[in-house]
């Protein structure tokens, strides 16, 4: 369907800009709505991935063209936002890294390259591999998922067309049926939007369940600039119910890490804060309760 032309948009090039933009906007809303039926499958994927990632597994994205570019955007944000280690995010890219900024002819058809990249990554039972292909039939992505699954990795396939081989290849098929594009075949539009939203949902919920979020706050973020240091201070103020000067002192004592700084602001030493967080696997809510009960 993503390759088909929708008669509704046939005269797009003759419309005024406001009319055309309204139509494109409506198509983007429809793309997000298409994800609704996939919510149970997304929840199943997250729950299946958690024990593997808790055991040290990697989050691996595989795809070609627009799909992998969207995936790299998602994965790159996990380090600064959740302090997810960069070595635990990897990419299987049709055409290699150069394909992120330009088209590589024939790359999406190269199944042998996909299998070689998967083998080179040394994937195993702790890893989650997410393959993305709007059409659901990209040879590179299908081969990557098949190879990863054969190596024991948990696999998911995200497609915007029903019946694609990618959905059959993956243990967790995720379908967002976005339909025909405003510009026929331009899957960077509706299909791309749906894929980005799905990845936002998967990666965010995984990070929430792994304890990187507390009360809707990114308590494992890396405060690498003035704006983020102010945000870190405000988080410590809010969670510990502490004045700004106490929060700043706690952050300095905790090397500008929010979680231990919260405990320091509550009265723990830096060493005690680290110990309590280690005992609770970094879960700040549990750590606060444990510290208060022991105080």
Report on this structure.
The protein is of the alpha/beta class. The protein has 2 domains: 7-209, Glucose-6-phosphate isomerase like protein, domain 1 (Rossmann fold, 3-Layer(aba) Sandwich), CATH 3.40.50.10490; 226-294, Orthogonal Bundle (Helicase, Ruva Protein, domain 3). Helix content is 52%, strand content 8%. The chain has 13 helices and 5 strands. Strand 4 (154-159), helix 7 (165-169) and strand 5 form a beta-alpha-beta unit. It is globular and about 65 Å long.
What would you say about this model in short?
With 295 residues, the protein is of the alpha/beta class. It has 13 helices and five strands.
Helix-residue proportion: 40-55%
Alpha plus pi helix count: 13
Distance between the termini: 62 Å
The tally of domains stands at 2
Radius of gyration: 22 Å
Please describe the biggest sheet, giving its number of strands, its sense, and whether it closes into a barrel.
Answer: 5 strands, parallel
| Alpha-beta classification | alpha/beta
The CATH homologous superfamily of the largest domain is named Glucose-6-phosphate isomerase like protein, domain 1
Order of SSEs, N→C? HHEHHEHEHEHEHHHHHH
The best one-word shape is: globular
CATH architecture verdict of the largest domain: 3-Layer(aba) Sandwich
Main CATH class of the largest domain: Alpha Beta
| Beta strand count | 5
Proportion of residues in β-strands: 5-15%
Strand numbers in spatial order across the main sheet: 2-1-3-4-5
């Amino acid at each position: 369907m993503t390759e088909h032309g929708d008669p509704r948009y046939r005269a797009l090039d003759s419309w005024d800009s406001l009319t055309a933009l309204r139509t494109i906007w409506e198509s983007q809303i429809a793309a997000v709505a298409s994800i609704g039926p996939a919510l149970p499958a997304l929840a199943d994927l997250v729950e299946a991935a958690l024990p593997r990632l808790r055991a040290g597994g990697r989050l691996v994205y595989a795809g070609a063209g627009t799909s992998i570019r969207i995936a790299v955007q998602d994965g790159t944000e996990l380090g600064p936002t959740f302090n997810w280690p960069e070595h635990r995010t990897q990419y299987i890219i049709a055409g290699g890294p150069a394909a992120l900024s330009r088209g590589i002819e024939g790359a999406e058809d190269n199944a042998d390259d996909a299998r070689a990249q998967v083998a080179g990554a040394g994937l195993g039972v702790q890893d989650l591999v997410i393959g993305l292909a709007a059409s659901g039939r990209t040879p590179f992505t299908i081969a990557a998922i098949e190879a990863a699954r054969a190596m024991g990795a948990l696999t998911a396939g995200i497609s915007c067309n029903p019946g694609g081989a990618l959905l059959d290849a993956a243990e967790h098929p995720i379908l967002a049926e976005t339909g025909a594009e405003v510009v026929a075949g331009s899957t960077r539009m509706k299909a791309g939007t749906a894929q980005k939203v799905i990845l936002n949902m998967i990666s965010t919920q995984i990070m929430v369940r792994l304890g990187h979020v507390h009360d809707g706050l990114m308590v494992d973020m890396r405060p690498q600039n003035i704006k983020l240091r102010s945000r870190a201070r405000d988080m410590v103020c809010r969670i510990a119910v502490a004045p700004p000067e106490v929060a700043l002192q706690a952050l300095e004592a905790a090397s500008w890490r929010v979680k231990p700084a919260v405990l320091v602001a509550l009265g723990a030493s830096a060493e005690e804060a680290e110990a309590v967080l280690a005992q609770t696997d970094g879960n700040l809510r549990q750590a606060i309760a444990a510290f208060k009960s022991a105080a």
